[in-house]
Amino acid sequence: MINNAKEEAKKLVAQMTLEEKISQMLHHSPAIERLNIPAYNWWSEALHGVARAGVATVFPQAIGLSAMFDSEFLKEVAAIISDEARAKHHEFVRQGDRDIYKGLTFWSPNINIFRDPRWGRGHETYGEDPYLTGELGIAFIQGLQGDDPDCMKIAACAKHFAVHSGPEALRHSFDAVVSPKDLWETYLPAFERAVKEADVESVMGAYNRTNGEPCCGSKTLLQDILRDKWGFKGHVVSDCWAICDFHLHHKVTSTPQESAAMAVRNGSDLNCGKTYPSLQVAIDEELITEEEITQACERLFTTRYKLGMFDKENRYSQIPFEIVDQPSHHEISYQAAVRSMVLLQNREELLPLKKDKTKSIAVIGPNAADAEMLLGNYNGTPSYSITPLDGIKEIMKDAGRVYYAKGCEIMTDKTEHLGMSHDRISEAVSVAQRADVAIVCVGLNARYEGEEGDAGNSRAAGDKDSLLLTGLQNELIEKIIGTGTKTIVVVFTGSAMDLRYVHQNAHGVIQAWYPGPEGGRALADLLFGEKDFSGRLPVTFVHESSDLPEFEDYSMKNRTYRYVEKAPLYSFGYGLSYNNYEYINMQISKDRIEEGQNIDITCAVKNNGTHEGIETAQVYLRDLESKWTVPQFSLVAFKSIRLKPGEEKNITLTVSADQMKVITDTGEKVFEKGGFELLLGGKGPFEKTITKTFELL
What we know:
alpha/beta, 697 residues, 5-stranded mixed β-sheet, Rossmann fold, Immunoglobulin-like
């Protein structure tokens, strides 16, 4: 069906009236009974599991999945998501249920660049690096869409195109002004690869303007770049109610019909919202032609034919409903949670904890027993959840006492409405004083960092106005550390925070993200050495908010590990483990190469520790003599290596010729002759690495 989907779509659309075509360009497309077209709602979500459609396997939030630095495993996760998506969809259809979130067109992944830690939606992304985002985006899209030449499994959507990462409060009117260099070096590469390498079926435009053009009506983005330059063949969907922003907030048009016409003419085929009914008026006012509407409608039905929606049966319709939320999927969610958590500090090698020497633990903090926190946003409904408190209780059930105290709330200064400020801190101090070790679970949740209109943080519309932990959390940590009890701080957030105090004073610091319903079990197993830490940071942790440029400034100057001007607290790529991994005898295939040639890097990696674990080998490129402004480092390859204690493996990583190109000030990709350095290690570019230089001739 995929091969002739376009022809079938043309035949079907040719039978429609203008009114019917327009009706099919809304995300809630009604049935056309005379043509045997059922009602269809295009809006479904699958960021880290089938979302908003009832019970499904929930995986760690996207930022946690990126911390695994493992595209192959992420593809396996995505394949499970798409299996469950198909199974749920077909069962819904059998029940006559064609509601929102129950279709086969999923508006995931979010491959925007997490350029500023204050952005509330950053935890939906794969982090700050274009290469990592591109690699993981490709894997996730391929896992969702499948590899059947006859039928697409589900349709993925790369969003939000483009140059979109806050501020949330301004997104409906904001103009993200960006230089050609930053556009092509940072903001567009992951989208280009999603189109060219993953053949993503759909692209969603962003709310904001980019360099003056509203993204969902941008000729530059949607026509010149996406379709003409990259050859995109799928359909474009607007972000929800973004097209009415053209006249209501961006003020680039004056009426709904002008907005609708502008969007369709420049390439937005599907309107998430309700502006496209004005296309009839746009036709009457000669703002658009019926041929342009027909083209958009054909693109949409091409996708529906690719998905086999008009076939009586296809291989995916046979996936049984019983696979949804099954135990084997839970196990993969658990593995992902283990792989996602990042050990940032382990003073005096307190971790891993030993059961025979740990007779009492105090589990403290507003995120210690909060099951909702585990899920992040754009989430499904898990059939169970294991909180940090649950997981630690289970692992300690035969070993010793577990105390619990909430300590404080995330935002407010008291728990009881009639209580005094700080009404839970004394209890937390009491349990810490009685424990051998305190595990303090702090951070945020999706109620406080997330999307404008969804997150309850109305003050900042889902963004953060500071990187400091909110409410009384810093004070709580200080009080617990002040007891003298050895303290491990576990941070559950989707973004980088100001962790200066805990870095300097806590024995252990763990970044746990929003790890999914298996998060508590994963954390407990990591704390006690049943598993080893292998996660790496997909974002840079600066020291404090004052280290950041203005939030509204989209220049990459002094942003992310690639351009940061002050050494960060924790860099992109950083993470500790219980093992010491040694890199031995790094070699490169050539030290003088011609334009267009790849470089192979070989070395041995040895586990000198006592735990079986996974090391994340990372390769960074440094341009030593460019006449252009270039990143100080760029990730160009990575690989996960599983090693038993004492085991040594040889690995090969390839740096493609395209990654050696420099982006000029005008946005061109060019080869520049001269010297380059390759850095290889497991903890990011600022930590100990081994290096080799080469010359591009």
